[in-house]
Write a structure and sequence with these properties.
2 copies of one chain form a homodimer.
Chain A (H helix, E strand, L loop, with lengths): L8 H8 L3 H9 L6 H14 L5 H8 L4 E5 L11 H15 L3 E5 L4 H15 L3 E4 L7 H8 L4 E4 L27 E4 L1 H14 L5 E5 L5 H16 L8 E3 L4 H11 L7 E4 L2 H17 L7 E6 L2 H6 L2 E4 L2 H17 L16 E4 L2 E3 L9
Helix pairs in contact in A: 1-2, 1-3, 5-13, 6-7, 8-9, 10-11
The structure holds a DNA duplex.
Chain lengths: 366, 366
DNA sequence: GTGAAAGCGCTAACAC
DNA sequence: GTGTTAGCGCTTTCAC
């Protein structure tokens, strides 16, 4: 504070009576500097309250330690706040790893790619985290082609619906599907939900899903069907597919519940579950004789907590942690750092198991 | 692409046959360079696909054009997603203004202040956007003391409850309350909601609020009370205060609705409104004779849309735009840029009026 | 109006 | 091990 401006490497060097390079070494490769010198330098740093200027370092090393993330326009879905939580977790993990998260926006995929270019050309962003990737995404293609480190949150779903990582059709320079990603195992989630309902004695467990073709939706459906099949109940499988909204959920539920044997519903989302809940409640009011209907949602949104809805919770923090890990792996593997061997050989694709949060809507009849 | 690496100022200068300084001028002060030279330089820039390196510029100018924002830990409230929307809008506005938003996290206020220091010392962040400020916030104090540009989203509520900007108790070097902020006029919001209900013929309009002492909550209550007073109905004013949750909202509503004359509820939040809605529905079922109850919420969360709840919508995008504006004003007013006069003289404190979104829960009896 | 010189704070080479 | 020499790409004097 006494000096007019902040101390620099030179200030520290003078103070410690060494060259400025030695100070730099103490900071970046402490092991190559003699302990007593190191001590002296560290003391000087301490005394002066020196903080390295990362901008200068960045100019020199061409590494920014900054990650870019496109802020998606708030989808109007009810599942708000999972992005909030993810963002918080990601920022936190990044910070812990010495990285920063920088936000940007883009109208569409092409604009986003243009932003990648700008961001890399002008501010030297090191890598990107992509959410909301979709089949045949031009963004992942571009990033692969330009050798930019990135990780997607969500698998690269083939147009078919099954997870990628399998078919390696030909010897293209870059197999787009085969990039680092982290995702939540939706199938395992619905499996848990369905099993939970079966364990509670339900036999005819219907599924309220999204229209066919969405990788995520089909994956969740698969988990339900699998479980039913394993239990020898696949013959009774009932599915209703609908758009993701409360109203549509209610309508779909009403259709399914015309079958009096259906006593439980596994829903692909909390929105649909919320609709189903309303439908079930009306049904219970109008027909006290009918068996009460158990319901599970997916995402464990605040709404689920609010209305006491059993739901599959996404471990967002884990996802963020693994995403940062995967990104770090790529960053460290770049030209300069020979630490490539240091990093534990890790899978480039990570599937995280969600867990079921059991609440009132799936517990024994009230 | 032909060349190995990216073009720099020198590359452009050579290409345009001018000094590198002239190129810099074309970029930063185009008006001082002769039109024909400028043309030539611009063409060279175009041809080479030159992009200025902001890191180098930053090292030289000490301005980063980056804004810091602490990512708050997801509050468990139902009102998720307003942060999402705000973040998107803020990023968008910032980008439009040539600024970037960088995220960070901190455990508490002190840790946040430490991050301010780190961020400014090492990466040279230009300013901050603070959300969730509270009475006697040490962060705003610190930022004022260190002359760091910032803007808060939300007024600096005095411990009393009234908005600051009024009492200037003594001649302290920095009047903490008197910093730039943007906020939503909650009072105007509940005023609109209450008036809407009065217009619909309701006479006894109760308020379900938060416990006393929260600036935001008291402000919202004030709007309701004001409107009732203006209508000469203050004598009938009924308030129930409760924690912000669906269950508490239902309980509070039940208490208020014991009074058969109460036909409308203005709620301080969507969570509470959601509870009230459930209570009202049960009441309607059990006592078909009673007049139906109209309900309004606050925040216009996805849940409100989902259950067709009338609610006060926060114009988040406007807030973001004004926040960026206020920050820009401070950034431009700094040492170098003499453009201080250019910026329209603007208020340093901005109150934005929300608007009511009328939905089923407040329309004439179904 | 344009150019030349200097330097922002740091690290990568290479000498010593 | 340590110091010296060069820049990274840009802008800011200040001559011309």
């Amino acid at each position: 504070m006494a000096e007019g401006s902040r101390p620099t490497l030179v200030t520290v060097a003078e103070h410690a009576r060494v060259s400025r390079q030695t100070v730099s070494n103490v900071l970046n490769s402490p092991e190559i500097v003699r302990p007593e010198t190191r001590e002296r330098v560290l003391r000087a740093i301490e005394e002066l309250g020196y903080r390295p200027n990362v901008v200068a370092r960045q100019l020199r090393t061409r590494r920014s330690s900054v990650l870019g993330l496109r802020m998606p326009p708030a989808s109007d879905g009810i599942s708000g706040q999972v992005l909030d939580r993810f963002l918080h977790a990601l920022t936190d993990e990044a910070q812990r790893a010495g990285l920063r998260v920088m936000l940007f926006t883009a109208e569409d995929d092409d604009a986003e790619i243009r932003e990648y270019q700008t961001l890399r050309a002008t501010t030297g962003i090191d890598g990107f985290v992509l959410a909301n990737t979709h089949a045949g995404d031009p963004r992942t293609q571009w990033l692969c082609d330009h050798d930019v480190p990135f990780v997607t949150v969500g698998r690269p779903w083939d147009d078919g619906g099954a997870p990628g990582a399998s078919t390696s059709d030909d010897g293209l320079p870059h197999k787009v599907d085969d990039h680092p990603w982290v995702d939540i195992d939706g199938r395992a989630g619905t499996r848990a939900a369905t099993q939970h309902l079966l364990d509670a004695g339900h036999r005819r467990v219907a599924f309220l899903g999204w229209p066919e073709g969405s990788g995520v939706g089909d994956d969740r459906l698969a988990g339900w069907l699998e479980t039913l099949t394993d239990a020898g109940l696949a013959g009774d499988a009932v599915v209703q597919r609908t758009e993701d909204s409360v109203a549509m959920g209610a309508a779909a539920a009403n259709r399914v519940l015309r079958d009096d044997d259906v006593t439980a519903l596994v829903c692909v989302s909390d929105s649909i579950a919320l609709g189903a809940l309303a439908a079930a409640r009306e049904l219970a009011a109008s027909r006290p004789d009918r068996a009460p209907v158990a319901i599970t949602g997916f995402d464990d949104t605040p709404v689920a907590r609010a209305v006491d809805l059993t739901s599959v919770a996404q471990p967002v923090a884990d996802v963020a942690a693994r995403a940062i890990e995967l990104l770090r792996g790529q960053l460290d593997a770049r030209p300069d750092s020979p630490d490539a061997s240091t990093g534990v050989a890790q899978d480039r694709q990570v599937l995280i198991e969600p867990h079921l949060v059991v609440r009132a809507t799936s517990r024994a009849a009230r």
